[in-house]
Amino acid sequence: MATSMHTWDDDTNRFAHAVIDYAVERVHLAKDTQWGAHPADVLQAAIAHAVAPQGVGGLEALRLFREVLLPACRPMDDPMNLAYVPTAPSVASTMFDLVVSASSIFGGNWEAGAGAIAAENQALRWLADLAGFPPDAGGVFVSGGSAANLSALVTAREVFTQRRGGRPPRYTVAVTEEVHASVRAAARVMDVDVLPVHTDAHGRMTGAALDAALHEHEHDSVFAVVATGGTTNAGVIDELDPIADVCQARGLWMHVDGAYGLAALCSSIVRDRFHGIERADSFGVDPHKWLFAPYDSAALIYRDPRPAAATHAQHGAYLDAVNRGDWNPSDYAYHLSRRARGLPLWFGLATYGTQAYTDAVDGAIRTAASFADEVSARPQFQLLLPPELSVVLFTRIGWSSEQYAEWSKRRAGEGRYLVVPTSWRGEPCLRICIVHPLTELGEIVGILDDLVSYQPA
Ligand SMILES: Cc1ncc(COP(=O)(O)O)c(C=O)c1O
Question: What is the distance of C-alpha 351 from the center of its chain?
């Protein structure tokens, strides 16, 4: 049991090593695909004694986490978790995240966190180079794609306002119906309107559709376009280069939300599909999705970071001591204090080399393509879209939403795999999203066999 909050004795030592040992065990061994949500009252009753004036001690708190709480959390890093956008943090990045916590780094400004920020900036530079951004591009790691989208759009709005010399009555951002919900959420937070842009048959924003939507809109209120580099539902990449043409012609900020898909900038197979990203004003990509880092981490990168700093830098008497000539990550998003949450990605890149990332992302893309071929080869299924990245949408011909839901819930409950239904163009269907290098083709093809032989309860 830990006897003291801040001094170190034998008990503390034993407890600290127990925590580390358990972390190693969890990364290496301990996960169970049957883990998942338990009712709140059951969980609350099990831990009712934990927070009390005297505490229960570190070992008991660890036991509660291990035996009660963690089994009530889905293992998002299981290779057969194919729902939403799962995660696959590497051993190095996960273990190093403990070191980041242990190091009490304030990642907000250079003066406090220079060493960490230098490493984060190296990881950002890798991403900026992959995108073809100029040498003075830069940005910051924020908590997730939602924070990245919001921070980029706030910068875009400010740039627009400055350029036109004042605020319009309303602001508008142009998006398609396939844009991630977090972009609409950002628009609500900012109280800006959304201009819908039609998609093509594959769910893409095209340059022509964007141009048509802007032409019809006729108001001087559109300050940004959000294109998607790999939609969450279908893994589809918008037509980035033609979109960049339209943005350039109209002087609009182009943000590319690549929370999931822009990881594939490092792919040797699909990099060409992102042609045009080099012309964007900003983009975001989440290492906690498909770049093998633990939660929570999103890289937000600006082609020209100066307007972002002018928009987001916080000022105040006690902040006057901060050297504004340094690279201060707090200035590039809506936040001040920040964990150096890009360090686990950096440590992973440094440990394994960037080629390992290319190989792992390519592996998922190949597995998805082979799975799609298996779907197409079976008469009981219909492939809805050829996969561009690692999302596959397909139907079990004749099944209803209720049948998908019943099957999905049953298999999740049994811990066999997690595949949840979605819809495509109004049609209920199944979706798998592969990010884990250990997801085996043979095992996911087994899901198709299961779907053929499945007998509803
Ligand atoms: C394309 C896209 N944008 C944004 C988000 C939101 O990211 P986060 O959950 O990290 O805030 C997601 C999440 O899945 C996403 O896929």
Answer: 22
